[in-house]
Design brief:
Helices cover about 5% and strands about 30% of the residues. With about 220 residues, the chain is mainly β. A hairpin with a 4-residue loop joins strand 2 and strand 3. The longest helix is centred in the first third of the chain and has 8 residues.
């Protein structure tokens, strides 16, 4: 279940395409996690955050419009979906002229742009039947970049562990969005790579592929 009381186009399609304290209680049956979503201010340059929705979520949380309702439309300026074939974002604002809503898909990450900060308490579970298609450059993905939501209780806890799980040779990089700068931290695992970093269960990650892989994330 997803409970909460309490983004405009994100001016960032990051040239290279190259987070709050999270408390996670999880088992092989499900999880509850608190995801702080900062608005414009010290914790976020523009109020933009990535968000990882559970694979199995509340039956009423199906479309981008449902996310606005759940968070409180006054708190959110838009929900954004990454379009792999063009390396761009489509935006739903819920306002007049704010674009069509779009369905939420398991394993897909989203950008949320906040007008007011919200501690978003999410519950749900994983689904072992979900397979993430991670596309290399080609018709399905312009640059081989995929915005991915991992299971909340995934066994991969770092960018390097995620790369190893997918297959090191298949992955060019794992990239995490940095809310304070609207930039990316990038880990390639190759010589000269920036440092490895921990994965946040609330966040979505860009995975840039060398080879198309159907990936089933392992979880506990």
């Amino acid at each position: 279940m997803v409970h909460t009381r309490t983004a405009l186009a994100l001016a960032v399609i990051l040239a290279a395409l190259l987070c709050g304290v999270r408390a996670l209680l999880a088992s092989n049956m499900g999880f509850v996690v608190n995801c702080p979503l900062p608005a414009l201010g010290p914790g976020s340059l523009t109020g933009s955050n990535t968000l990882n929705f559970p694979y199995q979520r509340d039956a009423q949380l199906v479309h981008a419009g449902d996310v606005l309702t759940d968070l409180g439309i006054a708190n959110v300026s838009g929900v954004m979906k990454f379009l792999e074939p063009v390396d761009a974002l489509t935006v739903y604002t819920g306002r007049k002229g704010g674009g069509p809503s779009f369905p939420l898909q398991s394993g897909e990450g989203y950008f949320i742009r906040m007008l007011r900060p919200v501690d978003y308490v999410i519950g749900g579970s994983s689904d072992p039947a979900v397979v993430l298609q991670l596309d290399a450059p080609g018709p399905a993905s312009r640059s081989g970049t995929n915005l991915v939501a991992l299971p909340y209780h995934a066994t991969a806890r770092t960018a390097s562990e995620l790369m190893e799980g997918i297959g090191f040779a298949n992955v060019a990089s794992v990239q995490g969005f940095v809310t304070e700068t609207d930039g990316l931290r990038v880990y390639t695992g190759r010589k000269g790579s920036p440092p490895d970093f921990a994965l946040d269960p609330c966040a979505a990650y860009f995975i840039k592929m060398n080879t198309t892989v159907n990936y089933v994330p392992s979880h506990y």
